[in-house]
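Something for you to look into today, if you have time. Could you write out one complete protein record for me, on any chain you like? Leave the record below and I will have a look.
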Amino acid sequence: MISEEPNLDYIDQLARDDDAVKQMLIDVLKNEFPTEQQEYYDSLAEKDFKKLASNVHRMKPKISILGLEKSYKLANDYEHNLKNNNLEGFEGFEELLQLISSFLKTI
């Protein structure tokens, strides 16, 4: 169970009150995350652990940007497990993906 909520605090810091920059960062998240998520699911269907680890690795900056510090650690641990052909952490990562997807629909 993930005990934190995504937020735009870090994006606000990066944008420094520049709404255009803030919107650009949000647009990048909204455009890239669904593609990366689909690539993750494709790799999962193929049971390609190397690709899965790479997919998780590419999503970690977005997790961090959304202020999900504990979830970043979860993703990092999951990535490490995938590199060892181990799916431990799958359920938590799946919950995280759903949380981020839902959040991105609201911003």
The mean pLDDT is 97. The CA atoms of residues 12 and 18 lie 8 Å apart. Residues 19-46 form the longest helix (28 residues). Residues 9-104 form a domain with the Four Helix Bundle (Hemerythrin (Met), subunit A) fold (CATH 1.20.120).
